[in-house]
Design brief:
about 350 residues; alpha/beta; 6-stranded mixed sheet; elongated; binds manganese (II) ion
Length: about 350
Amino acid sequence: MKFLHTADLHLNITLKHASFQNAKAHENRIYELQQSFHRIIDAAEGQNADALFLAGDLFDDPYMPLQEMEKIFHKLSELDCEVFLLIGNHDVFLQNASYQNLLKGKNIHLFSQNEYKVETKDAIVFGLNTRDFTEERLKKIAQEAESEKNTVLLLHGDVTNKQDDHYLTDIKTLESLPFDYIALGHIHKHAFLRSHIAYSGNPEPLDFSETEEKGYIEGTLENKRLDARFVPMQKRRFRLREVTLSGTETFVDIVEAIKRAVKEEERRNDFIRVVVKGEIDHTDELDVKKLQDQLSEDFYYIEIKDETVPSIDLSALKETYSDSIVSHLIEQYEKNPSEKGYESLMLAIRALLWTKERET
Ligand SMILES: [Mn+2]
């Protein structure tokens, strides 16, 4: 049996939380996430897969027009393979009986508390929806997996971090069960926890918290022997870079430093966030908007995060502004230096000097 395993497509996600710097990139990203579903379908078709495992959170929330959802199911039903649809924590609404009816007679098997097991010609596929999961139930259905046939289990939740709201059980428990492959969903970062227990991760990253490579898992299961591998497929990646300034750079220098920090191919294709650190001339301020505008020609998507601190030569300042509040503040600080004191001093000096320069 050839299979493809994916999860967490979150098809109708709004991505509002990601607060993109420009509306067009946001809109385009929504489109690309929808497209990733079509690309998964194409991959299943291209590989002549016998089974497609959708391990939960196909949808992000119930606010999707029913007609749109039907189109998704229709596309799945056109596949010449069995589709196994598990219900995650985001698409609990699928538990409504009307969906079960909608999918009846199709090649799409939606798991439920009573229908947790589907037998095909070369495998038995089990699924426990997030809502229905208990360790007791898991152990009960595992008894039915003692079989000569290939056995697969679909689960959606966390199996490594007990703090997660959707923690299921630990990896040792899963390992002790007789399934030949355990297809997991929920954690967006792809990982083979064991050679036969894996998170596929989501096929396209959602935001800057997902900088790793994305894709799906494809494999074969023959006579209970598993051969599975991760296949990268994301269209774009999210990348974080850092640039450190010394306080002497001109605007052009800063633009060039940011360009140098990112490979050309990544500039043209990926979502880039550059954190600018280090010192900046105290009379100046990093003009994030101006930088982004200047860089937008060279980048598909760029956002700048300003973490610079003003560079200030204290002794020179003391001399320039001797016998003033500025020199007084510096002297006070020098009597009792501390990190917090320095921060306050910088804020005060910056405010004072800024006002002064504006007045002249
Ligand atoms: Mn989830």
